[in-house]
Amino acid sequence: MRIIVLYSGNYGERVLNNILTKFAPNIISVYEFEENLPEYIEDIENYVPDNLPECDLLVVTGLHGDINLVTCKIANKTGAKSVIIESHSQKQLPFGIRSEITESLLNVKCVFPKPFCSLKPVGDIYIDEFVKYFGAPKIEIIGEKFIKSVIVHRNAPCGSTKYIAENLTGYPLNEAEIESGNKLHNYPCLASMEFDNEFSDTILHLAGYKIKEAVKKSLGFSNMVLNVNSNCKGVECGFKCYNICPVVKMGEKAVEIIDKTAKINYLYCGLCMKCIRECPFNAIISLKYS
Ligand code: SF4
Ligand code: SF4
């Protein structure tokens, strides 16, 4: 697989350095865009670099605003078959720019992970090859009562999963979930703390839900889970919990509708508590385990 990386800023540089650890032989070219380019660009053609080689996959990271549209020109020039454009704040890649890119690259598989650590396999040969190593965190926690070690099967593209894994050693297993979120903040994760209308949450919180999901999947338990009781009248309320859940909006089954009733899956639930506040029938309760 031949990869070209288009990047900008500290975050883009961090991602580039991290993915080089696995894909150095595959990365045939990189191109850095200046930071602080105008948000609105009239003639994007002026920003298309010369002499980029043909490639299979374009990875675009750290670009803000209209400059993301350069991806269309570069994909056409290089013959890229697949494109990954990450964003970690709402303003970075507005819906309108995403639509423009998708519409202009009809024969190219485009994905727009927000945040980058939410990227999962999509059934595309090149994107899925990338996701073998980078995307939504996948880990294996070793230890009985305390964490002896953590194997990283898939790292967040920014490298946060590896950092979190190295710093979880020694913690009791039942603190792993909460500590993984704390360590993400220490890394530091560069995802925005601004409210994102698309997800009804901040992107930083979404990143936290993804690392906690990885921890829970490895451990097979959570210290706190939400349950839906028999007061649930989903047909009457229109499944408000499902509609408000930021994790559902990310495409995960945190809330499922089964037999006209909502069910919450602790593996994906990020415990944001929005559904509890939203439920008109007080049907969602939290259960805490020690
Ligand atoms: S749990 Fe509450 S908000 Fe969710 S479907 Fe049931 S009644 Fe509606
Ligand atoms: S607490 Fe409710 S709304 Fe929040 S992630 Fe969990 S299921 Fe979704």
From TrEMBL:
Domain 4Fe-4S ferredoxin-type: 260-290
Pfam families: DUF166, Fer4
InterPro entries: 4Fe4S_Fe-S-bd, 4Fe4S_Fe_S_CS, DUF166
GO molecular function, one term: oxidoreductase activity
Protein name: 4Fe-4S ferredoxin-type domain-containing protein
Organism of provenance: Methanococcus vannielii (strain ATCC 35089 / DSM 1224 / JCM 13029 / OCM 148 / SB)
